[in-house]
# Entry
Amino acid sequence: STLFPYTTLFRSGINVSEVIPSPPIALSLESSRTNKQIIVDGVTPLLGKIDPFKKWIVVAGRFHPDKCPALAIQAFSILAVNSYHLIFAGAGNVKYITRLIKDTSRDIQDRIAIITVPPRLLSNLYSAADIVLHTSTPNETFTDARPSAVTSAAFHGKPVVAINGGGIEECLSKKNIRLLCVNPTKYEAKNELAVELAKRLELIFNNKLCLSIGDANAKFSRQNNVQNILYYFLSKLANRSDDDADTATAERGQLI
# Structure
């Protein structure tokens, strides 16, 4: 509603490509179903099918080994629940994800989809998700310092089953971390991590607990006060621009 963010950002050399609308604080089951239909109508799957009448476990982010998608598929394969579908939403190496999916049984393949979601529908994606799964595991070359998919899921009031590494604890409520996050240092083998993730997914199938953790995440996210953080950032940029202008004026005065 104001040009201040744009003018300040542009003056500092930062380009704004898209503005994602914030979701309402209270998200109902009907809202989830409505947003699923919006995604179904607005996105063409790269692999598989997305069903608005199923429950969605969403893995959001770039398609890359750093994100450990094989671990997500392995955990999902352990579950014997046909009502849930696994959806990879992002961009990157689609062939890599496709190969991983095709290594599973036909029954599992039929319940996994790959989609790319345009920025204008990202809020709808997180609103549509029933559970967000984050399997990025820290290693010698990569750590997910502050995963945006996890931050977005919490803001949208969604429970997140995740590997507790990197900046996860900065993104989620203590309740979510205690009940749904897996400490990777306790398990040496990937298949052990997959089993533990599957246990957390089964736990969150309880609708009451799902809503409770989602609500805790939404409250935790809003305590960070994104608007204040943004305006703090913008004010710093504005002050920097003013300081630059004062310096330039002083230099011109010295020259005169």
